[in-house]
Amino acid sequence: MKLTPERAIFKTRKNQNTMQNFIQYLKDTKGEMKHVSWPTKSQTVAFTSLVVVISVVGAFLLGLFDAGFKKALEFLLSK
Predict the structure, then answer these.
(1) Helix (H) or strand (E) holding 73
(2) What is the SS3 string spanning 11-70?
(3) CA 75 to CA 52: how far, in whole Å?
(4) What are the C-alpha distances in Å from 23 to residues 13, 17, 26?
(5) How many CB atoms lie within 10 A of CB 70?
(6) Given this model, what pLDDT does residue 13 score?
(7) Which residues in the chain land under pLDDT 50?
(8) Between 20 and 30 A from 17 (CA), which of 32, 55, 67, 71?
(9) pTM higher than 0.70 for the full model?
(10) What is the predicted pLDDT for the residue at 17?
């Protein structure tokens, strides 16, 4: 398919329109970010600490269950 001058103009306009849409999207996003209620530093530290503690406890419990199932399976298979 040959690129005629008319097609080239259409392609250029399409690219410009896409870029304008993207720039408008970034402007809108920036405006919306101003409306977000961000947590305070102390809230962020507290929530992050909570996530870390829950993750460590969960990993410990999963490790205990894994070790228990391993021992039970070894016991059942050794008979």
Answers:
(1) helix 41-78
(2) HHHHHHHHHHHHHHHHHHHHHHHCCCCCCCHHHHHHHHHHHHHHHHHHHHHHHHHHHHHH
(3) 35
(4) 15, 10, 5
(5) 10
(6) 63
(7) none
(8) 32
(9) no
(10) 80
Lookup: tokens for 36: 């977000």
The rounded distance, in Å, linking the Cα atoms of 64 and 70 is 10
Q: How far apart are CA 29 and CA 26, in angstroms?
A: 5
* Token pair for 74: 């070894």
What is the average pLDDT score of the chain?
Answer: 87
Residue whose tokens read 């999963």: 62
Tell me the C-alpha distance between 32 and 17, whole Å.
22
pLDDT at 20: 86
